[in-house]
UniProtKB/TrEMBL annotation:
It is found in: Cell membrane. Its EC number is 2.7.7.41. The chain crosses the membrane at residues 12-43, 55-74, 86-103, 112-135, 147-167, 188-207, 213-231, 262-279. GO terms for cellular component: plasma membrane. It is a multi-pass membrane protein. GO terms for molecular function: phosphatidate cytidylyltransferase activity. One of its GO terms (biological process) is CDP-diacylglycerol biosynthetic process. It comes from Bacteroides fluxus YIT 12057. Pathway: Phospholipid metabolism; CDP-diacylglycerol biosynthesis; CDP-diacylglycerol from sn-glycerol 3-phosphate: step 3/3; Lipid metabolism. This is Phosphatidate cytidylyltransferase.
Length: 280
């Protein structure tokens, strides 16, 4: 038990240090890290689907698609290239569709569906981090790298998870979604939300490129959709009859276990910030 706790603690600290360090260090380290995370997460998702025995997906091609989508959107957001950079990605999706005509597998519709889901559910959210990280400044005709926005998403998620665990352990009585996740409570979720919203005031103080209310709104958005993201992965694992999505992170499970909340929180954050720009 003690060794497992130490293992979890060491892995958790290293995970946070690498993630925060790569986001803050440079656009290059940010790009390398999340290209790798995208590929591994999509590969893990397709591996889980294949293990179910119901479908047979090309894991390597799907993982390559996840990596390429991140790099393509990064190139587009930094104005290093135009929209034509997405053409190879479209060709890859067509390949996944067309090959099913010739492979004679038992469930081609399922293979199509889960191949596309691997891109929509896993690859696209990571790629959308580029929309948060790179801001176009028309006044000076340049793109700037702002690591604080993508970093804030993960900070809000981590504080929400930590707060939910602490508060839920102490006073959690009312189950949030017992059918899918019996341990989660309303008290814990609200407590985690308060932790995240409190941290948004610190972000507003040290990084005032958004007013306090916008930072607080971003935190609320991340907490709500992050909770749904967590529950979505829990439902998937319950359906598959597994405890963890993988074992790549000792003591913490797989990539999807670590990024389940982010898979819904990131797209929601992009939509939230885009709505803000409409009404400014």
């Amino acid at each position: 038990m003690k060794n497992n706790f130490i293992q979890r603690a060491v892995t958790g600290v290293l995970f946070v240090v690498v993630l925060v360090g790569c986001i803050l260090y440079s656009p290059l380290s940010f790009g390398i890290l999340f290209t790798l995370i995208s590929a591994l997460s999509v590969y893990e998702f397709t591996h889980l689907m294949n293990q179910s025995g119901e479908v047979s997906i090309n894991k390597a091609i799907a993982g390559l698609g996840g990596a390429y989508l991140f790099l393509a959107l990064m190139g587009f957001c930094t104005q290093a290239t135009d929209a034509r950079v997405f053409l190879p990605y479209l060709a890859l999706l067509l390949y996944l569709m067309i090959t099913e005509l010739y492979l004679k597998k038992k469930n081609p519709i399922g293979n199509w569906a889960f191949s596309m889901l691997s891109q929509l559910y896993v690859a696209l959210p990571f790629a959308l981090l580029n929309v948060l990280a790179f801001q176009n400044t028309p006044e000076i005709s340049s793109v700037t790298y702002n690591p604080i926005l993508p970093l804030s998403i993960f900070v809000f998620i981590w504080l929400s998870d930590t707060g939910a665990y602490c508060v839920g352990s102490m006073i959690g009585k009312h189950r949030l979604f017992e059918r899918i996740s019996p341990k989660k409570s309303w008290e814990g979720s609200i407590g985690g939300g308060i932790f995240s919203i409190a941290s948004s005031f610190a972000f507003a103080h040290f990084f005032p490129f958004m007013p306090v209310w916008q930072w607080a709104g971003l935190a609320v958005t991340v907490v709500i959709f992050g909770t749904w993201g967590d529950l979505t992965e829990s439902l998937m694992k319950r359906q598959l009859g597994i405890k963890d999505s993988g074992n790549i992170l000792p003591g913490h499970g797989g990539m999807l276990d670590r990024f389940d909340s982010a898979l819904m929180a990131i797209p929601a954050a992009v939509v939230y910030l885009y709505i803000l720009t409409i009404f400014q």
